[in-house]
Amino acid sequence: MKLLHLADLHLGKRVHEFSMLEDQRYILKQILEIMETEQADGVLVAGDIYDKTVPPAEAVQLLDDFLTNIAGRKIPVFLISGNHDSAERISFGAKLFAKSGVHFASGYQGKTEVVTLEDDYGKVNIYLLPFVRPVYVRQAFPELAERIVSYQDAMQTVIGHIDLNRECRNVLVAHQFVTGAERCESEEIQVGGLDNVEASLFADFDYVALGHIHGPQWILRETIRYAGTPLKYSFSEVCHQKAVTVIELRAKGDVGIRKIPLRPLHDMRKLRGSYEELTKRSVYENTSVEDYVQITLTDEEDIFDAVGKLRVIYPNLMKIEYDNRRTGKTAESAAAEDVERTPLEYTKALFTMQNERAMSPKQEKYLVNLIEEVWEDGL
Question: Residue 173: pLDDT above 90?
Answer without folding.
Answer: yes
